[in-house]
Each structure stands twice: as structure tokens, then as C-alpha cells.
Amino acid sequence: ISNYAMTSDPYPVRAGDSLRYWIWFDTESNYDATVAEVSENGLEWFQLHDRYTGNSGGWVRRAFSLAPWIGSSVFIRFRYMTDDNTLRAGVYVDDVWPAPAFAQRLVLSDAITDTLYEVSDLEVGTYWFRGRGRNAAWGWNNQGPLKEVVVTGVGVAERPGADRLRTGLTAGRNPSAGPIELGYTLARTGNAVLAVTDASGRKVRTLVSGRTGQGRHSVRWDGRDDAGRRLPAGVYFCRLDADESAGVRVVLLD
């Protein structure tokens, strides 16, 4: 049985943001487990930490950096996996931050048939837009990522970096106890940085830094930090930042 509680709206991640919460759990050790996860599209979910199982011994505060998703919007959920073999008290989560909340939601149109849709008569301020697609067979799809737009009174200014291209960042043999092969694509030659951070957001390894050519590239991470020390098992984030593209991939070291 897998149950989860999920935010109804995505959260636009900014620099310095982290997922913070208190958790209390009493579950069957190694059989029942709870994880906190984030997703940009509601389909692909990334686990932020090793699973919680057994007994927490009271309320415990946890915090995990959202740095890999800066400039993107993410859904947040807590997922509890259990069975009916051994029954315990369960899992409780409280004081979760961030908790996305918008002052007002307005459907601009549910019948857009063109690639261009104009919005007018908005007051000065900051707005967030997102779109959905629909077909007769499957109905409405999951809502897309948020797009921040600032209305200044004399025009519209989009936040810089909000529409950078995806890089097709991939990770082979994941989870892995050995080297992990990372692949990525650059649309054009430019500066690129591929770095690995731990679950707290601390950078532990820089794999690529400097001018990189157009096309597909690959690099191997041996599970060690910049000083050559073997890193402990757990969740790590591989993030690529280039001039006009960005990508993130979650990897698990066994």
C-alpha cells in the first residue's frame, strides 16, 4: 500500500530555499517506510533522503536543500509505504515549509486553440502562469511548470533564466555502488559547470567547469569528493548549469 500527501500547487524555488518539516513516526522497521519527494511535473519524483523506518523516538526536525531546482517550480509530497501485516501508530508530519499558497486563482481560458494567447488589463504586480493540455481520449493532463511574470505598468518583464533549455542530463546505473556515467547535451558551445551536491545542498564535487563544445558529452563520477575521499551512501544531486541550458539529476550511492 502506498499513500501520499501532496501539495495542490507547485512551489517556485528561489535561491536559499529548503524543504523543512517536523516528523514523528512509529512503523515496522525495514518493512514500512516514509520518504519526502519533489517533482517538476507530478510524474517523475525525486527522493530527497534515505527512507524513514522504525521509530523516530519523538518529533524530529528535518531540512533538505532545494538548490537543484532553483528557477523551476516543484510539487512536494510525503509518501508512506506499508502493509497490513504489522500495525503501528504510523507517520505524522507538521509545520511543512514551503506550503504553496496563492491569493487567487483565475482560469483565463479553457478553450485555447492557437499557439498565441494574449492577456491584458492586469494590475501592476507579480503573477504566475501555467498551462494544461487536453484531448478527448485522456482529458486534462498534469499542470505544467509555473512561469513568473512581472507587470510593471509599461510592459511585461519575465524573470531572467526562467526559460533555459533542458540539457538531457542522464545518469546510468542509478542507484550504484560504483562509478556513475553522466551524459548531457549542449545546444551550442559555451561555459558549463557540472557539480555534485549532497542532500544538504553542499557542493562536494565539480566534474566539469569551463568552456564546453556543442553536442553530446559524458563524464564519469567515481563517488568521491574533490579531495578524493569516498562519499557515504545516500542521495546526491548532479546539476548542470550552462549559458542557455540547465538540468538536474538525482543519483543514489549504495
From TrEMBL:
<dbReference type="Pfam" id="PF13860">
    <property type="entry name" value="FlgD_ig"/>
</dbReference>
<dbReference type="InterPro" id="IPR025965">
    <property type="entry name" value="FlgD/Vpr_Ig-like"/>
</dbReference>
<protein>
    <recommendedName>
        <fullName>FlgD/Vpr Ig-like domain-containing protein</fullName>
    </recommendedName>
</protein>
<feature type="domain" description="FlgD/Vpr Ig-like">
    <location>
        <begin position="179"/>
        <end position="242"/>
    </location>
</feature>
<dbReference type="Pfam" id="PF20773">
    <property type="entry name" value="InhA-like_MAM"/>
</dbReference>
